[in-house]
Amino acid sequence: MSVFRPGFLELGRLWETKPLERNYEVVIVGGGIHGLATAYYLAKEHGIRDVAVLEREYIGFGGSGRNTAIVRANQRTQENVRLYDEGLKLWPVLTDELDFNLMFYNCGNLNLAHSEAAVSSFRLAINTANFYGVRSELLDPQQCKEVVPALDISDRPKHPIQAGMYHPPGGVVRHDAVVWGLAKGASAHGVAIHQGVGVEGIDVDGGRITGVRTSEGRIGCDKLGIMAGGYGTAVCAMLDIELPVNPLTIQAMVTQPLKPFLHHVVSSGAYHVYANQTLKGEIATGAHMDPQVNYTTDVTAYYFKHQAEALTDFMPCLKDVRFLRIWAGLADMTPDMAPILDGNFAYDGLYLDVGWGYFGFKSGPITGKYMADFIAREEAPEILRPFALRRFLENRYMGETATAMKYGQWD
Amino acid sequence: MTRLPRSSALRIDTDRRLRFSWCGSARAGYEGDTVASALWSSGVRTFGRSFEYHRPRGLYDLEGEGASQLVSIDGVPNQSAGTTLLREGMAVAAQNVRGDPRSDAFGFLDRLDRWMPAGFYYRVFHRPHAAAHFVHNRMRAMAGLGILDVSTSGDPGRREEIFLNADVAVIGGGAAGMRAALAAAGAGTRVCLFERRPWLGGHLDWRLGLEGADGPDSPRARGRALAEHVGSDARIRVFTSAPVTGIWGENLVTGFQRVGAADPFVERHWECRARTIVVATGALERPLVFNHNDRPGVMQADTAWRLARTYGVSPGAVVVFSAGDDLALEAALDLLSLGVDVPAIADSRPEGQDPELVSRIAESGAELLTGWAASQVVGRRVVRGVQLAEIGGSTRREFPCDVVVANAGRQPDIGALSCAGARFRHSTHTGSFELASLPSDVFAAGRVLGLTDSVEIEATGTLAGLEAASACGASVSGTLAAARAEVAEGAGAPPGTGIVRGPDIGEGRKAFLDYDEDGTWKNAVQCAALGFDVPELAKRFGNFGLGPGQYRVPGQNVAMAMAEIEGRPASDVASTTVRPPIIPPSLATLAGPNHDVHKRTPLHEDQAARGGVFRRAGAWKRARYFSADYTCREEIRNVRENVGLLDSSPLGKFRIWGPHALHALQRVYISDMRKATRGRCKYSAMCNDTGNVVDDGVVIPVGEDDYYFTTSSNRAGSTVEWFRYHTRYDGWDYNLLNLTDALASINLAGPEARAVLERVTDADLSNDAFPYLGYRVIPVGDGVEARCMRLGFVGELSYELHVGASYAQYAWDLLWDAGAELGIRPFGLEAQYCMRAEKGHVIIGAESEQRVTLLDIGMGWLWDRSDTASKKVGAPALRACEEQDGRLELVGLRIDDAGHRPEDGAIVVDGDRIAGYVCTTRVSGALGYQYGLALVEEGFAVEGTTLSIYEHLRSDDVRTSATVVPPHFYDPKGERLRV
């Protein structure tokens, strides 16, 4: 073999398949970005290599493989801005560490405001971001049009554009690549990744986690990380832990591929739309959540049509474009749109990383890094402390939205 | 233009010549041609360039199945040449090319494939990071197919939407679908039949029978006869040119319909809610994977056949077949009968061919090579020949030709069934997928079941139609049993080889599994080697089946190829889920008329005429300003000094009555509602379970166990459910009626408000007779009854009049005329917003958010904390939070810096952390200074504290300061309200 042969032409398994052991120091439930990242950092930064990631389907089956790949850090509250900002800065570092092209495309995000109230909330987010050194600017409609020429900034649309929040550090990352890259990195550091192993029960003894019962038999462990995305509530239910989390279906779709014309992520709360053009040229666009609590990933004609109505209203040049595919995933929604990151609270050895709603992708690797620290040192890192479950017991919501999210019969 | 001899199957009108252009050069076709058939007949072989390698691509299929046949038409990208009918004057152009599609400038990429293994871009170009962005942009520029003109507002044509209802929706208008429709209609059910092609008959339409004469027993004649029956049955509604996009929950079938020039619409979106569904979508050709199987000139058997019979176009001068089923042999014979030179026919099946076809081929002089398949195409830009190879042997033979017809047999078109929730498994018998389970009320018939015998195809159609009718409650007991028996007698699906690839694939560099995104067999091998052993992962990493053709062209081949590569049995293979749309619809058609649905008050037009600037506010459009001065200085001044009129009709208005009405009020309102008295407005708030204020308004007892109350506009829609939800376990007897839209609301505010109102009513409006917070029902004008409240949201003497919505304009005009001499003017929401802020009146969402409770925003005085019996919503949270440290609190701000006023959303900072934020600031003409309302941590909420305020404005950091003051600026004692 030639010494000049570049590494990318070599065809070895990116991650190893290992026999399933009967005991691990740490078992992580969920082979998505959060679970794989936590395992990766446990092995790499804390030397804890006796780690198994259990995935019921295949890695990246859930939200990690179904999201629209958008990353940003322009959150509403300071606790969240700090975490997401670190997360944003991690993509290039991780790309290098994993030696895997995560395709972080730092194109910037343009979020549209269609009312005076939305402009005020943009100002709050912009001020909060810039106070912490995160770039974010308020644009007038003409400036929005300069950034995204496809926009209709006239008074014709149902929701005329009043302003934009332009956030240059954000962009998109290839979501599947993050899953595969983390699997590669975790495996290289000794983590065992087991696909097709579903957790069916959790064993406790004297207030401690002792193991999990799986489709492949019982597996003992000292520490258990529940990082199962939309299915986190179902896993916690095995311990009779009821979380303030509502799993909701959220749908996304792509159009046929087009030559690049949309060079930024564009989003609008009023239209319930976010869209970006993928590396392949498709317009990937996400919709609002289905309002009823469920665990299905069913797609609906309603959102298929709604998304076409919304997109063509504020970007009319898309009228002749065709939708190619629609799919759905689960969003594990908390009332305050912030996640639940906690450990050793109900049982010793139990660690929880759930409730990300639709923010789970952009936060994945950075949360994995801190959750690994939490699990290794058995003490919550300062940056994660505000996300503890007890904030709900104390009525101290985090305020990622002005109004608390409520799902159920009447909202 | 070379056209074959006319035959009865022809779907073009050769008397109507249509001119069009291809990449700028003039061409012509006929009425009835698709863009693809017209291009092929005018000698165009290269339709465009491929996605990754920029390889030349031609006409592979006529069903709009893949990227190869996507072209730009009249500047609109990604149009399907195979399914778009030719129109006079069309400008058709190739996609993904620089220059002529035959000699594309990026064609060199094809030679770089050695350096582009599966997913190579995941493993290169990422170092150094600075260069990665550059490379990423270059890759983006290379990607995509069609070019979209962002300056257009899209196709201007009107789109219609129709909503259908059927007992039985039949998908597919071939023999099976038509028989299903006839059987279901015969049983008395209402049927909608959807066919994606412009005619009924399915694949029978171009089959004239082995005699080639279209005799009375020919397949085509049979198809025409069935179509006539269907067309004359009034219980069947037929939709042709109507592809199905999806089957969704509760048997909702959606699609679109391409319509002709005579239709007033350019396309139609349809939705059909069906009780039952029959899927008869037929079969697709499974591509044969062999070296250079993508060269222009390689095509499906049906493509060659339909070019010849439907469009009268010779597919080529010399056509070599590599067949996988009897239909392809029949196609070869038919081409021979039309005089096309077919020197050789390879058939990948070693045996099992229809003996009659075999003997006829022998008679024709064409050479039939059973157990052979195509191994390699000769020719770089177009097909110049093909090498055929003995499967499992070493014999190779090369044939010069300009067209290679190749398939590996047929696969059921599982799209619609998969969307409906059917499951499939691999069958080693057919070498393809077969139905494993069907959801209830969905039935399948015909070739989608793997059948090829025409009698069986029709029998399953009849059975499916009867079963569907039976599921709708039709009485079909006798015929159903007979139909079942007939199907049971059939031989079932014939065997197939399950072969995916040609014999020499190992040496081939370019044998395509997926034409759309240039996924090769070699890429599949690389995926497996890299560990992407799960088909869903290989699909994503290697880009198989994610392009414009979706599941169709790579179809089952990817899963079967992965099994072969990994040495797993084919029976292990599972089909991946097909996701809608089955056929891609345009966004414009899907969006339809896209009506702007909003509510307008009865006074909308009047306000518009008076210069109102409207904004959407929840479900409503409301006047926010009445001039271009968005500070509303004049509107506010006129209310403060004179009198103004506001249309507040969206305000929530309710009547609650019944023995337990008070119980319900006690539950949802935080105050002691027993203290509400007749003739007086009782102000209170509603909290949610976490103690946040969700609503405020007034409650007025108007009779025995009978109350009238108001809510904020945003809550009007959810109030009834809120009451019901929070009293759902109590069994209380009360009625709750939403009067929001039935009653209009007009606010008359300002020092002259009484003077105006006195002119339109006889009621005694003196301060003693009708004091502040009073409620009276008064007659206005000719005796129109108005519910009148003396409130003071904006801080002035004001009356809120609720009148029947149909009297709104009358009452408004009365007040307008009465106030004319007093200088009455309208004011909008922004003026109201400013004036209430000067009063320190909170607006939920502006100064109240999820982090603050009733207590935190200074409204704790409303809470009747002694009442635990009513189980007031939010009371437990308020109790729990009452003594908590570190909460946000509402404060007033007096802004010190007269030069710069921080805007809404400025943040309050404490060193390197954030300690709160500014909700609202305004300049007050009445006060003469800048003021604001803010939520700050309790340590900063002490009166007199100087707050440090940070803003990022136009790329600059701006710091200002403000002093904490009580949040009541204007007329803090409320004297102006009580005059």
List low-pLDDT spans of chain B.
none
CATH architecture of the largest domain in chain A: 3-Layer(bba) Sandwich
CATH H-tier superfamily of the domain at 604-649 and 742-835 in chain B: Probable tRNA modification gtpase trme, domain 1
Mean pLDDT of chain A: 94
Number of DSSP-assigned strands of chain B: 47
- Computed Rg of chain A: 21 Å
CATH class of the domain at 604-649 and 742-835 in chain B, named Alpha Beta
Tally of separate domains of chain A: 2
* Low-pLDDT ranges of chain A: 1-5
Structure description:
The complex is a heterodimer of chains A (411) and B (979). Chain A has 9 helices and 18 strands. In chain A, the strands form 3 sheets. In chain A, strands 1, 2, 8, 9, 10, 11, 17 and 18 form an 8-stranded mixed beta sheet that branches. Chain A has helices at residues 33-46, 78-98, 116-131, 141-147, 175-188, 232-237, 301-314, 364-377, 390-393; strands at 23-29, 51-55, 70-71, 109-113, 137-139, 163-167, 171-172, 192-195, 199-205, 208-214, 217-226, 246-255, 265-268, 273-277, 283-293, 323-333, 340-343, 350-354. Chain A is globular and about 65 Å long. With 411 residues, chain A is of the alpha/beta class. In chain A, helix 1 runs parallel beside helix 5, helix 1 (33-46) crosses helix 8 and helix 2 crosses helix 8 (364-377). With 979 residues, chain B is of the alpha+beta class. The mean pLDDT of chain B is 93. Among the domains of chain B are: 13-107, Ubiquitin-like (UB roll) (Roll), CATH 3.10.20.440; 290-407, FAD/NAD(P)-binding domain; 604-649 and 742-835, 2-Layer Sandwich (Gyrase A, domain 2); 652-738, Alpha-Beta Plaits (2-Layer Sandwich); 885-978, Beta Barrel (Elongation Factor Tu (Ef-tu), domain 3), CATH 2.40.30.110. In chain B, the strands form 12 sheets. In chain B, strands 8, 9, 10, 11, 12, 13 and 26 form a 7-stranded mixed beta sheet that branches. The longest helix of chain B is centred in the middle third of the chain and has 18 residues, at 454-471. Chains A and B meet through helix 2, helix 3, helix 5, helix 7 and strand 16 of A and strand 6, helix 2, strand 11, helix 12 and helix 14 of B.
